[in-house]
Write a structure and sequence with these properties.
With 386 residues, the chain is α/β, with parallel strands linked by helices. Helix content is 39%, strand content 18%. The chain folds into 2 domains: 128 residues, Alpha-Beta Complex (Aspartate Aminotransferase, domain 1), CATH 3.90.1150.10; 238 residues, 3-Layer(aba) Sandwich (Aspartate Aminotransferase, domain 2), CATH 3.40.640. It is globular, with a radius of gyration of 21 Å.
Length: 386
């Protein structure tokens, strides 16, 4: 009766069941998986609420790509970071997930393929399936740092391949795309008529500088490329439901892509008027929230380096983002590691297989966690790993 595009088994996994059991027993769980900035004890400027009081929200005059003022505000976001993005190349969406759906619709027919990184964002398969598109994983290689396995990627390109997806910086490895990798990807895309799709929601959260680092594909000219971001991470405002796509590449291609994206967006008109009216003020106010997040993640990362220095876990290098990856001894599965930490230490972490790590055993923790919870939880984690 139901669509084959949906998961067949919607039952909760063992970790979810264990969480519910511990909470029913009255346990105080120290959650190292927090990814919602509105639940992370940040201080939000009053200007954010005030920005939604504009009487212009009472007028509904939708434009498929989004209001010009909101698109100019997004263009200003890139200008503040040294970029040059015309508002005419920007299309607003309600979220990055919706942006993926739009792009898969534009680029792929049912049965076509998109190449997605592994390890990375755990929803690619679901998002692709919902568009009747196949997500094919390409590997990220780790040799003291993460990089795209370009040779393996090339072998995966077929006549059904339509796009290569990047998460930059990657979630959860925190690794950024480097300029030689981008050059190779643009050449590959141009040769095979592929598009590059770059998810850049964590791009502002770098730990230190690197001249070889690529922070956005918004100014790529050698192939069709799409850059995505949004208020959820940029301003710590996931509840505002405003994302965007920047189209770049050869003029003819990116103009045609914009036309097709506008056609799709006109079908749904999903972006709310209030958030579009408030976009410029929300981005400006979000700078303060972003400053707090950068301070929080840097502080927690420094504590983790110190606390885990003498234990059996290895911290993998992280360049940016909100997450930290730990490699732990392969004496048990990742799932069993997570379950034992929960049952014996009341510490909740994510097992690596949530992000499709190719080998065991990795655990992922959130650097967004409240510092007092992070310190206690990581200390318990270190004690467990001695």
């Amino acid at each position: 009766m139901f669509s084959s595009r949906l998961p067949r088994d919607l039952r909760p996994n063992r970790l979810t069941q264990a969480i519910e059991k511990r909470r029913s027993e009255g346990a105080r769980i120290l959650d190292l998986t927090e990814s919602n900035p509105t639940h992370a004890g940040l201080s939000y400027p009053e200007e954010i609420a005030a920005a939604l009081s504009d009487t212009a929200v009472l007028d509904y005059s939708p434009l498929p790509a989004g209001s010009w003022a909101a698109r100019e505000a997004v263009a200003g976001y890139y200008a503040a970071r040294g970029g040059s993005v015309a508002a005419s190349r920007i299309l607003l969406t309600a979220s990055t997930s919706e942006a993926y759906a739009y792009l898969f619709k534009v680029l792929a027919s049912p049965g076509d393929q998109v190449l997605v990184p592994r390890p990375s964002y755990p929803l690619f398969e679901f998002l692709a399936n919902l568009e009747s598109v196949e997500a094919v994983q390409y590997p990220l290689a780790y040799h003291g740092g993460w990089s795209i396995d370009l040779d393996a990627l090339r072998t995966l390109v077929t006549d059904r391949t339509r796009a290569v997806v990047l998460v930059n910086p990657n979630n959860p490895t925190g690794s950024y795309l480097k300029r030689p990798e981008l050059d190779a990807l643009v050449q590959l895309a141009a040769e095979h008529d592929l598009a590059l799709i770059s998810d850049e929601v964590f791009s502002d959260y770098a730990f230190g500088r690197d001249a070889d680092r690529v922070t956005t594909l918004a100014e790529v000219t050698g192939c069709l490329a799409f850059s995505m971001s949004g208020l959820s991470k940029v301003a710590g405002l996931p509840q505002m439901k405003l994302g965007w796509i920047v189209c770049s590449g050869p003029e003819r291609l990116h103009r045609e892509a914009m036309d097709k994206l506008e056609w799709i967006a006109d079908t749904f008109l999903s972006v709310g008027t209030p958030v579009q009216c408030a976009a410029a003020r929300l981005l400006k106010a979000g700078d303060e929230v972003q400053r707090q997040i950068r301070g929080r993640t840097a502080q927690n990362l420094a504590f983790a380096r110190q606390a885990l220095e003498d234990c059996t876990a290895s911290m993998l290098p992280v360049e940016g983002g909100w997450y930290l990856t730990l490699q732990v001894p392969r004496v048990r599965s990742e799932e069993d590691w997570a379950l034992e930490l929960l049952e014996r230490k009341d510490v909740l972490v994510q097992p690596g297989f949530f992000y499709d790590f190719e080998a065991e055993a990795f655990l992922v923790v959130s650097l967004l966690t409240l510092p007092e919870i992070f310190r206690e939880a990581v200390s318990r984690l270190a004690d467990f790993l001695l």
